[in-house]
Design brief:
Radius of gyration: 22 Å
Strand content: 5-15%
CATH class of the largest domain: Alpha Beta
Helix content: 25-40%
CATH architecture of the largest domain: 3-Layer(aba) Sandwich
Distance between the termini: 23 Å
Number of helices: 12
Largest sheet: 7 strands, parallel
Strand order of the largest sheet: 8-7-6-9-10-11-12
Shape: elongated
Order of helices and strands: EHEHEHEHEHHEHEHEHEHEHEEH
Oligomer: single chain
Length: about 325
């Protein structure tokens, strides 16, 4: 690694074999950088591919950055996550080894909020059943069992009230819904400024017609939406999760749906997700008519993809040039 006439910086980019590297190349213009596109599906892949890199830009995060992976990065100065969550990166070990971990905390708010509304409308307007019935050749305009109500008489409950939930609260109010939210780290006045009423987690579950999860995955939130939570929710309620799959206990969700205790669920994230395109998605949720599933794509738009790649690459460039990144989630040892 050198900045003055030595070998170029080597930057490993996951997913680079599937996507172009034009965004990254433009960010690194004027800096001697060799971009190394790699396909990563396992921790062993990561260890093999990144043994000599100076930085990593992870665009897909198909494999976790475990302690073993981080310790194998002998020359690495920074791991850049092209996304918000860093729960699959051992940030503490990275800090101990003098390595930054950076993320992109302020992108895709509109995309995830709009995807949440997509799932909400599909569930509350009975879209899946209408679609499948008509595709089967049955013209049935009246579905007697459909539990459909106007949104303006509904309450949307948000679990977590970060930037995405705030964007959703603003957009959802166009439909006339009442928005309530639970977040121990956000005060009542801050929620009110975004049109939401602060409630306890239990009270959100008790009163919401749609419960939408937007909390980060931490030890505090892992398994938060469990059997007790489902028992607390209304029987007519639907659950939406666009945050992290491990926050919702899927077996408890399935049990609640089987018992008729919940009206449905819309999920973009899952407790276990395939590590690559060639790995099948195995889940007992697949064959249910009362769920709507999407493959962890709520974040995506062309604009959001470009923004996340630019921000991640810019922070990598800052580190390689010897300055601090803007979006560090850890503090490397030896950095004041």
């Amino acid at each position: 690694m050198s900045t003055d006439g030595g070998p170029p910086f080597v930057v490993g980019v996951t997913g680079g074999r599937r996507f172009d590297l034009g965004v990254e190349r433009r960010v690194f213009e004027g800096l001697d950088v060799q971009l190394r596109p790699v396909g990563i599906e396992t921790t062993d892949d990561a260890i093999d591919a990144f043994a000599d890199v100076d930085a990593v830009i992870d665009r897909l995060q198909t494999a976790p950055y475990t302690t073993a992976v981080v310790e194998s990065l002998a020359n690495c100065a920074v791991i850049a996550r092209c996304g918000i969550g860093v729960d699959r990166i051992d940030t503490e070990t990275a800090a101990e080894r003098g390595m930054y971990v950076v993320n992109v905390p302020d992108y895709c708010q509109d995309e995830v909020a709009e995807h949440t509304l997509l799932l909400l409308l599909a569930l509350t307007r009975n879209l899946v059943e209408y679609d499948s019935t008509l595709k089967a050749g049955v013209w049935e305009r009246r579905v007697p069992d459909a539990e459909i109500h106007r949104l303006s008489s509904s309450t949307l409950g948000l679990v977590g009230f970060g930037s995405i939930a705030r964007t959703l609260a603003r957009k959802a109010q166009v439909f006339g819904v009442d928005v309530v939210a639970s977040d121990p780290y956000v005060d009542e006045s801050e929620m009110a400024s975004h049109g939401a009423s602060k409630r306890t987690f239990e009270r959100v579950l008790e009163t919401a017609d749609v419960v939408s999860v937007h909390a980060p995955l931490t030890e505090e939130t892992r398994g938060l939406v469990d059997a007790d939570a489902f028992r607390t929710m209304k029987e007519t309620a639907v659950l939406i999760n666009v945050s992290r799959g491990e926050i919702v206990v899927e077996d408890a969700l399935i049990a609640a749906l089987d018992a008729g205790e919940k009206a449905g669920a819309g999920l973009d994230v899952f407790e276990t997700e395939p590590s690559g395109r060639r790995v099948p998605f195995e889940s007992d949720l697949r064959n249910r008519d009362d769920v709507v599933l999407t493959p962890h794509v709520a974040w995506y738009s062309r604009e959001a993809d470009r923004e996340r790649r630019q921000q991640a690459a810019r922070d990598v460039r800052r580190v390689l040039e010897g300055t601090r990144p803007e979006n560090a989630v850890n503090r490397p040892d030896g950095v004041p």
